[in-house]
Amino acid sequence: MSVSIIIPTWNEAACLGRTLGVLQSLNPPPREIVLVDGGSSDRTVVIARTWSDRLPLRVIQAPAPGRSVQMNLGAKTARGDILCFLHADTLVPDDFVNVVESTLANPGVAGGGFISLMAGPGATRWGISLHNALKTYYAPLLFRPHLFFTRGLRLLFGDQVMFCRRADFLACGGFDPALPIMEEADLCLKLCRRGHLRQLNRVVQSSDRRVAAWGAFKANAIYLMIGLLWGVGVPAAALKRFYEEVR
Fold it and tell me: What pTM was computed for the model?
């Protein structure tokens, strides 16, 4: 199976170069990297294009901003058998491609993600990282227990580098373009009908920029509130107002 990495971007000039530098060290390399920009006003696209001669990288422009729209466009144009959705501020291990391929070699597994360690220049957010890892299990256990036990549902989020087979992604309709938030959780609900989902015992490192801007207490409270409200059926559009973009 070949791997396509899809990166949705919007004003990611501060971190994109580091992420692409890590992708250059992957062994084996992915088949391709598809960067889908949502209308950045900084140097994101310029930086991406400077890496085009060092990586199997294509840069495309989305017709409208929105992570779901961008990731769906990347999936539509990708040529790999496996789709990996990578945030521009997240760093992956150098054996990333092998880990993803070996996970999906099991036909009973429909998708997976990693443990996200949230860190920044000033701190490693151990408590929030632990909570987010546990949330992958307790959220579906609380709100969709029948799917947790019978379908192996796990709720994976963007900073966990979610991955799945391209065929399964397309068959279940991909990300809902109407969702401004919780689009990965919604995809998990659809993917688990096609096989179990796994949180791997491997770590990726994600930026703590939102926690640094909000403070640890506020960030934990917002993460918990959004998860609980989504679990009881509050529309994602209503939850988005609590989750402003931080760059």
Answer: 0.94
